[in-house]
Amino acid sequence: METYFRQREWDVFWPTVRVRREWSDRYKEVAAPLFPSYVFVRLTEAERRRAVQAPGFLWFVRNERGPAPVAAEELAAVERLLASGWRFDPLPAARMGDEVEIVAGAMRGCRGRLVRKSAGAIALVVSAINGGLRVTVPNPAWIRVLPRLDRRRA
Predict the structure, then answer these.
(1) Residues 84 and 148 reside in one and the same domain
(2) Which of 13, 23, 57, 99 has the smallest number of CB atoms closer than 10 Å to its CB?
């Protein structure tokens, strides 16, 4: 499906991670989707009607108003995490805690929700698909808890 979108020169983001897979005779490192079954694509209404013809396409993530938009900041945070080299674990359906912002390092300015205060683990949430990623910040001092008034913008 990603190839279908790229061939049409649509703005597509399909984040992948390198994972080690075992075959009967060997191990191999392969690219696997970070969010299985999800491809993020920016489309016009006309392009959206054509997108449903993509091989393997099921449907757009929707809410009561139609296709659910994903905030550009959320996808930018995922891109920055992938580029940062930090260790992380996928975290579908994250438990919500305090909203935080990373104030130092490669992920500076990214916001998420605190998962474990003692370990400096935060979740970067992609709200449209109710999923996210858990990343451990190298230094817990790099995390700032957002004031309640500031949380509405997170």
Answers:
(1) yes
(2) 23
Amino acid at 133: L
Judge if 58 and 114 occupy the same domain.
Answer: no
Residue with tokens 């099921």: 58
d(CA 31, CA 77): 20
Determine the 3-state secondary structure of 122 from DSSP: strand
Output DSSP code: residue 152. G
**Global pTM?**
0.62
Compute the mean pLDDT over every residue in the chain, rounded to the nearest whole number.
Answer: 80
Range of the domain at 13: 2-67
| Count of other CB atoms within 10 angstroms of residue 45 | 8
**What confidence tier does 127 reach under pLDDT thresholds 50, 70, 90?**
low
| Domain limit, last residue, from 19, 36, 67 | 67
* Number of domains the chain contains: 2
